[in-house]
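Hello support,

Our group uses your service weekly, and this is the first time we've seen a run hang past the timeout. The protein is NELFB factor. I'm not sure whether the cause is the sequence or the server load. Input pasted verbatim:
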Amino acid sequence: PGQAEMYAGLQELGVANGEDLKETLTNCTEPLKAIEQFQTENGVLLPSLQYALPFLDLHGTPRLEFHQSVFDELREKLLERVSAIALEGKVEERYKKLEDLLEKSFSLVKMPSIQPVVMCVMKHLPKVPEKKLKLVMADKDLYKACAVEVKRQIWQDNQALFGDEVSPLLKQYILEKENILFSNDISFLQNFFSPSPKTRRQGEVVQKLTQMIGKNVKLYDMVLQFLRTLFLRTRNVHYCTLRAELLMSLHDLEISEICTVDPCHKFTWCLDACIREKFVDNKRARELQGFLDGVKKGQEQVLGDLSMILCDPFAINTLALSTIRHLQDLVGQDTLPRESPDLLLLLRMLSLGQGAWDMIDSQVFKEPKMEAELITRFLPLLMSFVVDDHTFTVDQKLPSEEKGPIPYPSTIPEAFTKFLQENRIACEIGLYYILHITKQRNKNAFLRLLPALVETFSDLAFSDIFLHLLTGNLTLLSDEFALEEFCTSLFDGFFLTACSRKENVHRHVLRLLLHLHHKVAPTKLESLQKALEPTKQSGEAVKELYNQLSEKLELRKPSPAEVTETPSMELPLPSVPTPASR
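Update from on-call engineer: The timeout came from a worker crash unrelated to the input. Re-ran successfully.
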C-alpha cells in the first residue's frame, strides 16, 4: 500500500502520522531531539515501558518490531471484544455500542492494519448506516474486503450489482452440468442421474449461492427471478434443477425465514425424497397430489414455480422411471392405464413439468390439459410391446414344431411413431421405455423401435440427456457392435441422420466410439471414421474428440512389418473411371 493509504484517516482522529513526522523534521534545527519528542508523544504511554525499551535495544530488537507486535496483539483483543459485544446485553444496547464504535473507527477503514476491525464491526451490525454502505460500495477495494453479511445489505438494494456477482456462478453451474453429460467416461452404472440430491447440493455453486443469500428473503427472491428469466431466455432445464437444489440447500440448513415463505417448500421436500429413491411410492404420491389439489383460487401463480420444480431433469427422470415401472405392473395385473390413479398422477406431474416454459412464458397459470389419447391409446401401445417381449420369450422356450421358430415382431405401429412426433409426454415416456429395453439388453426390441427416434417431438431423441443415458446403456450391448446389421441400424439409421445438423449428436457418437471402437467391425469403423470427420464449421470439442479417436485407431493398426509378412499374390488393378462417373 502507498504511504497515503497506510496512514489514511489518522489526521481526522488527531493522531500524528508519517506526514507529520516529515514536516517536523523538515522544519527543525535538532532532528534527534525532534524524533525523541515525537516518540514520547506518540509511543505506548506506559511508565514501566521506559525501562524495558532500552533493554530490548540491547538485544537488537527494532522498535518497529516491538510496536508491531503490541499493535497486532491489541488488534486481536479488539476483534475478540467486538465479536463479544455483538452477543451480550440487550439488543438495542449492543448495537448502539457497535454503531458508536463504527462512527469512531470508520475514517480508518482504508488503513490496512485497522481495516479488519472496521470490517468486523460492520459485519456484526444487522443494519449498517446507509451512508457507510454507499462509501463501501463506491470503493472497489473496500467492497471486496467486506464480509458477506455487509455485502448482503448492499445487494438487497442493488439488483444489478447482485446480478454481476451471481451471473458467473450460474454460468459455471450450467458448464458443470454439460461437462457431466459430455464426459468421456461412459457407463450404465454411473450416469448424470447417479449422484443423490444431498450430494449434488454440496456442489460449489449451490453452496456459494446459499452463503450469499443467508437468511435474506429479498436476495433469495432475486436469485429465483434470475433463474426464471434465464430459463425463459435459454429453455435450459438445468436452471430448474438449481431452483430446487437451492431451496433444499436452505432446507438442510433449517433456514425457516426462507423455507416458510416459499410456497413450494413442502412439495419440493417430498419430491426430493422421491428423487433420492428414483421412485414415487404410493404414500408420497398421495402427498404430492394433496399439494397440487390444494392450490387455491387466486394463488394459481404458485403453479409456475411448481412446474419449474417438476421440470428439473432429475424430477422428470424419477417420474418417467416410475411410469415405466407402473406400466409393467399393470401388464401383470391385466389392468388398463386409465384404471390406475397412481399412473394418472405421474402423468399429471410430467405434464406440469413439461409445460413449465409455456406457463411461465404465457403467464397463464393453469394445469395443462391431459390428452385422453395418451392414456387410452399410447400407454396401452407401450404395454403391448411389453406383452410382445413376454410372448417371444415364452415362444423361444417352447419345443419348436415344423413351422420353425417364430420371428420377433419387426414392424412398429404407425400410431407409436406419430405419438412420438406429436405428443411431448408420449415422447418422453417412449424414450424412457427405449432406455429401459436397452438396459435389459433387449436387442430385438431396441432395433424394432429405433427407427421411431429419427423424428421426435422437438428432437427430444437428440437431446443431451437422452443421448447421455442411451450411450451409457448401449455399453451393455457392446458385443452387438461387431454385427454389420446392428451398426447400420444404430449409426446410419439413427445417429448419422442428425450429426451434420446437430453438433451435440456428433459429440455423443464420438464419445460412444471412443469407448467401444474395439468392438466395432473394422470395415464399419473405417466408414464411420470418414462419416464423422469434422467440417470447417465443427466446434473445438468435436475436433478434439475426433483426434482422440483417430489416435486410438492408429494405435490399433498393425505395423507395416506385420503386413508385409503375408505378400499378396494379386497385383492392384488401376482404377479406370466409368463413363458415368466422369
